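Our consortium's second objective concerns turning raw sequence data into structural hypotheses that experimental partners can test. To show how far this objective has progressed, the report includes one record in full. It was chosen at random from the queue rather than selected for favorable results. The single chain below, 169 residues long, was entered without modification.
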Amino acid sequence: MTAMPGLGTPRLASPDLLRSVFRRHAAGVAVITARGDAGPVGFTATSLTSVSAEPPLLSFGIGTGASSWPAISEADHVGVHILGEHQQDLAATFARSGADRFGPATSWHEGPEGVPVLDDVPAWLVCRIAGRVPAGDHRIVVAEVVLGDSTGPGRPLLYHQGRFHGLRD
């Protein structure tokens, strides 16, 4: 392929190309939680999307190889937590494979429908899972908002270029 003026040289589609493009896309950071048979589960997600206002629907992606997938695949409800810039360590914990995500360093409580609800987040929702759509090695989970709170502390946490960041004024 030839270089395009001002655009560089296009590359054929590959997992590396997709990752390198999305490293340049700043995304909000959320933690998704659920009640599992062996206890609470959760993971960091940057794929959270508002889908519909009426009814209130959202979506997120999860890999079928993720440690949280077995619980998410069976759960009726999930918790969706928007993280604040003061919660970079929490985001890293829920993103790290093998981490004790609900250990002493994580402040949480059992919320409605038995969903683990993280404390001190800027916003959280409890959602009823409406569908799980196959998408390659992932599933897109569509969930309907049941209840939540958007009055928590802090400004949003962002993910960009492989790192967590706060907003700049």
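The partners drew two points from this record. The chain has one domain: 29-163. The domain at 29-163 is CATH 2.30.110.10 (Pnp Oxidase; Chain A). Both points have been shared with the crystallography group to help prioritize constructs.
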